[in-house]
Amino acid sequence: MxxxxxxxxxxxxxxxxxxxxxxxxxxxxxxPLLVLISVFSHTSLSFAEGSKAAKVSLESHLHxxxxxxxxxxxxxxxxxxxxxxxxxxxxxxxxxxSSSYLVGGSDVEEFAQTPQLREIxxxxxxxxxxxxxxxxxxxxxxxxxxxxxxxxLGKCLAQPGMLGMKLRFSNxxxxxxxILENIRSAIASHEKKMKFVLIHMPAEYPFVLSSxxxxxxxxxxxxxxxxxxxxxxxxxxxxxxxxIRFVVAHSMNSSELINELxxxxxxxxxxxxxxxxxxxxxxxxxxxxxPPGKRESWKAYAKAWREFGIDQVIFGSDQVIGQNENIKxxxxxxxxxxxxxxxxxxxxxxxxxxxxxxxKTNGAKFIEWVKEAQAAVRSxx
Length: 381
Ligand SMILES: [Zn+2]
Fold this sequence. Notes:
Layout: H1 16-41, H2 47-53, E1 56-65, H3 74-87, E2 91-98, H4 116-131, E3 136-142, H5 149-157, E4 162-168, H6 177-189, E5 196-200, H7 205-210, H8 217-240, E6 245-248, H9 255-265, E7 273-276, H10 296-309, E8 313-314, E9 319-322, H11 335-346, H12 352-380
Parallel strand pairs: 1-2, 1-9, 2-3, 3-4, 4-5, 5-6, 6-7, 7-8
Helix pairs in contact: 1-11, 5-6, 8-9, 9-10
The structure holds zinc ion (ZN).
């Protein structure tokens, strides 16, 4: 979840109805087929069939928040909502993120008292992934402040289908030598089992974008320089672990930061660095009231993604399912997903071919690669 984003609520009025025009044509092709299948089978759509009709091949940023404790089937209720979301025809597959990374983190204090929640959250996600192996790939939570992080991560990754790790920063910096070493050694311990890291970078520059008048040119440059140090630390990690894919969440909420990333990796283009699109197009943009065809920030993102390498850009929506006593997001019937898809489709600075890559081709390739890498490890054991 992107805590910085207080504008999310603004977009709640964007409903599925808004999407109808752009998506109806695609649906129309599948609808008769779906009716036919359900008539013949007398059952609801299977996951495999739903996957074919999905608008997006891979949702790379799906949060699952379980309640702090199970009060009579409440964990199950969240799992049912995840299945509902999958069956809604929006996505083929999803990276399902355990919220364990919040436990013991510096911004949800209550969780610090109950470290056992980490394993509970992880194994609840794992059981859901195990029940839907063709639709979900599990992402373990990890917090850079955990002293026993290696062990917690190891237990999580030992469960079937848990193949990635989510990293998110509050007040910490990735470039902090102690933090970086904690993360590096956790990854190194589980290098074989873990396939990817979804990383929400610590970056201050998006705040400059959200209120440009509060910063003068010198301050703006200083903050950009500070964030570049964080990006350099990410590049260092990616170089150290070429077999693990690093997916940069939210496109760092700034096309300028993507450009810094491009600048840093220019000499030797890293094939294991990927960019995810969630909330890039509608966060911190000074020109959000401009029509899509005129938005400078949308143009800047399209350009940055293209220069980075459009083949390594994947769709994500930061969709949240479930809630707990500390986080009051709640299941929102998928509006975040719908909103993010709508923004991407409306970006006139991207070609149709590029949109197809971001929404379908690249995600499908990502899944295929994860499954192949997993199979290769299994056969070597
Ligand atoms: Zn998120």
